[in-house]
């Protein structure tokens, strides 16, 4: 079903990185991890694709597909975003900074 | 139906936290969110363990719903204000579900948990207990719930609104991008369905767009207001969000939510499927 997965950095067992495109990363402010940020995945046209809440250690993870993506984080302190391009299946890391 | 009767602002909510006859209920996708902090006085409903039958794929029956609401301390006359995480997906689902069993006054908190948190409003871990009530539910109002045959029959005859993301609609992926993609059913969408992702109805902070913006959104997508409408997604929760927009905010008549959604439809032997955008 659709229960929100834990956003820890460890991938769920059975994740096949030869087939799946996984975007993962951390939200930070002044170098410190930010938990509880609303992390939105936007596609190449800026259209909303998915949203998760960052873990206590600032982590987030999306199962996406190849393409250009923007990861945008909303937080009480302010918002920030970063771009990431996935050329094919695999694990991609992206860092997002908020004020 | 007007917006004021079905949607409350965070300010309104904050002013009515202690008002008699108003019960705040958190319904989450991540059911542990409530325990980490909830709106003061709010009770929790677990959409998975409390609203779904534990064995067959269906809702709890009328008697079980009556017991659930009685145990939660909710009366027939209470105004129930629902909110939750993930842009109110499961709160909207619960809204539709409460309406299905005939609760009179249900409202959604605009923006849900997200807006509340972004605003820096109070959350508490205080335990909430409400005295039990004796709740009476109605028979299911199937004028707002679509089943599979009705959905197949609606192809080319009613508005079918697929509210999943464009990649799920086209068949590229089978589940939202924050979930693993393993799935048994076939990808694609119901022929003749319009693709209006639920997210287009919401602002970044989770609040609903204005009625004018919403009307032009569905109009531009080709929704025919003179026809009946069935909304679907993957498991019926995102389409509850769109059902809320079409039926409760815009007051279109005869709008149903197909809660079987793609996990049922995409597994039906012989049902027509279209691929591509």
Can you tag this structure with a few keywords?
heterodimer, A: 99 residues, mainly beta, four-stranded mixed sheet, four-stranded antiparallel sheet, 8 strands, globular, B: 277 residues, alpha/beta, five-stranded parallel sheet, four-stranded parallel sheet, 31% helix
Strand content of chain A: over 45%
Unreliable segments of 5+ consecutive residues of chain B:
none
Q: N- to C-terminal separation of chain A?
A: 35 Å
Shape of chain A: globular
Largest interface (CB within 8 Å) is between: A-B, 29 and 35 residues
Give the overall form of chain B: globular
**Could you give the order of strands across the largest sheet of chain B?**
1-5-4-2-3
The residue fraction in helices of chain B comes out at: 25-40%
Strand-helix topology:
The complex is a heterodimer of chains A (99) and B (277).
Chain A: E1 21-29, E2 32-33, E3 38-42, E4 48-53, E5 59-64, E6 67-75, E7 78-86, E8 90-97
Parallel strand pairs in A: 1-8
Antiparallel strand pairs in A: 1-2, 1-5, 3-4, 3-6, 6-7
Chain B: H1 3-6, E1 7-8, H2 10-15, E2 22-28, H3 33-36, E3 43-46, H4 62-72, E4 79-83, H5 85-100, E5 106-109, H6 112-118, H7 148-153, E6 159-162, H8 166-170, E7 194-195, H9 211-221, E8 229-232, H10 238-249, E9 255-257, H11 261-265
Parallel strand pairs in B: 1-5, 2-3, 2-4, 4-5, 6-7, 6-8, 8-9
Written overview of the protein:
- The complex is a heterodimer of chains A (99) and B (277).
- With 99 residues, chain A is mainly β.
- Chain A is 0% helix and 55% strand.
- Chain B is α/β, with parallel strands linked by helices.
- In chain B, helix 5 packs across helix 10 (238-249).
- Chain B starts with a helix and ends in a 12-residue tail after the last helix.
- Chains A and B meet through strand 3, strand 4 and strand 5 of A and helix 5 and helix 6 of B.
């Amino acid at each position: 079903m659709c229960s929100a997965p834990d956003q820890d950095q460890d991938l769920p067992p059975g994740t096949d990185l030869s087939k799946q495109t996984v975007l993962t990363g951390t939200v930070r402010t002044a170098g410190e991890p930010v938990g509880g940020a609303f992390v939105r995945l936007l596609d190449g046209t800026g259209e909303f694709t998915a949203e998760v809440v960052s873990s206590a250690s600032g982590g987030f993870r999306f199962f996406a597909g190849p393409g250009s993506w923007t990861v945008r984080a909303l937080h009480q302190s302010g918002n920030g975003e970063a771009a990431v391009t996935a050329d094919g299946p695999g694990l991609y890391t992206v860092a997002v900074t908020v004020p | 139906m007007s917006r004021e009767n079905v949607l409350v602002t965070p300010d309104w909510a904050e002013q009515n936290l202690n008002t008699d006859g108003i019960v705040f209920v958190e319904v989450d996708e991540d059911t542990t969110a409530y325990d980490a902090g909830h709106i003061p006085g709010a009770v929790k409903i677990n959409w998975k363990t409390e609203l779904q039958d534990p064995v067959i794929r269906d809702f709890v029956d009328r008697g079980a719903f009556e017991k659930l609401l009685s145990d939660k301390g909710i009366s027939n006359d209470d105004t129930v204000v629902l909110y939750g995480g993930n842009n109110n997906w499961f709160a909207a689902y619960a809204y539709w579900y409460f309406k299905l069993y005939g609760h009179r006054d249900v409202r959604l908190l605009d923006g849900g948990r997200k807006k509340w948190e972004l605003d820096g409003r109070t959350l508490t871990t205080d335990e909430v207990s409400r005295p039990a009530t004796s709740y009476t539910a109605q028979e299911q109002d199937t004028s707002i719930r679509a089943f599979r045959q009705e959905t197949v029959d609606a192809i080319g005859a009613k508005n079918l609104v697929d509210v999943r993301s464009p990649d799920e609609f086209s068949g590229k992926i089978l589940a939202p991008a924050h979930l693993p993609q393993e799935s048994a059913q076939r990808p694609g969408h119901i022929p003749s369905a319009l693709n209006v992702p639920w997210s287009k109805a919401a602002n970044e902070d989770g609040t609903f767009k204005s009625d004018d913006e919403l009307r032009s959104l569905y109009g531009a997508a080709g929704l025919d207001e003179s026809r009946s409408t069935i909304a679907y997604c993957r498991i019926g929760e995102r389409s509850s969000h769109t059902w809320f927009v079409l039926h409760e905010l815009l007051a279109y008549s005869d709008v149903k939510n197909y809660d079987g959604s793609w996990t049922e439809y995409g597994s039906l032997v012989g049902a027509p499927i279209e691929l591509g955008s």
